[in-house]
Amino acid sequence: MPDINTVNRPDEWKIEQGLSGAVLPVLDMTGPETKALAPQTFGPLTKDEDAIKSVGDRDALFKAERKGWKGFVEWENHPDKKAAAHKILTSQTFPPNPEYQLGPIPATNPVLPGTHWKMWHHAVGGELTQIPEDSWDTVLREKHPDMLHLLQFPYNGEPPKRLVTDKVITPNSLHFVRNHGGIPMIDKEDYSFTLDGLVQNPRSFTLDDLMDESKFPRMEKTVTMQCSGTRRIEQITKYAGQGDEVPQAPWAEGAIGTANYVGVSLKKVVKACGGLIDGAKHLEFDGADTYFKDDEVMNYLVSVPWSKVKANEVLLAWEMNGETLPRIHGYPLRIVVLGYIGARSVKWLYRVKAIREPSRAPVQSKEYLYFPQQVGKHNLKMTDGIQIQEMPVSSAITSPWTKQVVIHNGRIRCKGWAYSGGGRWPERVELSTDGGFNWYTIPLESLSRKRKWTWRTWEFDLPCDVEGWIEIVCRCRDNALNTQPPDVRTAWNWGLHVTS
Ligand code: MTE
């Protein structure tokens, strides 16, 4: 066949249909004429060796700080160290984040390797050098071989749909993991955390201190933890390119899990410090991992209001489902906040600080925000966002799958979960085979037990007389009669959070 004489790109058809938007020119319509700007491209990577050398010996600058704490650098009280790491990071270039909202998501497991995150760690060096490798070894040791690894480093993974609701209590190896940084390797014997800030008598606590039942009564709670990004993939695939290019977490139905945690109430520990002083109203939690954001390094810091702690709804936990807390879930000690998004349940806790206002740290003040629909990348003001704390009521189908062919005798076996944040619980779960016109209520005996802080899993033989394409949808009403929006679009927001 003779060559076709065309100026079209080979995949012109695909590009025009919006299946490969990342290569489209940007249209600048701010002037009288529309101008087509070339899409952003990145040149070869550069490195200013002299500038990096001038920072000093990285192994000495970012050396091990505490005996038995591998991979921990405390950044928060050390502006000098932060500045040194910033200089290292800005004296060279790294590959850009993959923009897969506009292009295809790789069909691999791990889906994404996190190349630039690994490079940042290696570039800073010192205690961070080995972290990417240690973290992946931990994944392979502690997690189920069937986990879907969304991001290799920092590790983000969820169980495949068939295992998400297989058990009402999620086995530790199958509980989803959401990490912003690497996993610090902390020895239990050398572990302690500090409680300071606006408390009467600041002090440190070891695990033995907390485990002393004559001082702190044990607290045991079964808790569903949900990442606010659960089911973000629906927003990504339906409205590609419209949300935050959060490249690390294309979560599906599996970024939720339920476990039984043992520990003590943080309220009692604050009391052991003589209580709060000087108008303290929030507690900030510091995690020992290192998070990179906009060429800055930091520890993982968030806060919750004192009222939440005072209600005995914040736990310091060392046990998960009858086992020592796994390293990947925060060993030796983590926070578990009942009924709040997972982001507040800080792992590898090294400090609790009583403060007056919610934490100004980036994870609290710039992430996990819910923006109104009209806010996008270019007119984003952090103060327009609402800090996400309690997840809205939600439910999800884990079987059958989208576009799966089912041969049936008038009933389709469906499985899934339902959950509501803030201590509300699913009262009713309904299913429809016609996109939400006619609904069947799942009988209560087909839902798992009702508990204040947990999901309810369900299984139901859904009547269906139709042959052809059907649209199975579910919805939940919680005990406050909240229910879900009718479609994904209604819940769309820039950060692609709280898909319900
Ligand atoms: N704590 C630290 N120190 N670092 C983190 O990256 N991620 C948070 C939270 N605690 C995180 C953390 C987020 S966003 C979630 S959803 C939960 O941990 C997930 O807990 P899991 O990994 O044990 O399931």
From TrEMBL:
The keyword Transferase does not apply. Its cofactor is Mo-molybdopterin. Keywords: Metal-binding, Molybdenum, Oxidoreductase. Pfam families: Mo-co_dimer (PF03404), Oxidored_molyb (PF00174). The lineage of its organism: Eukaryota, Fungi, Dikarya, Ascomycota, Pezizomycotina. This is Sulfite oxidase. Residues 180-361 form the Oxidoreductase molybdopterin-binding domain. Transmembrane segments: none annotated. Residues 387-493 form the Moybdenum cofactor oxidoreductase dimerisation domain.
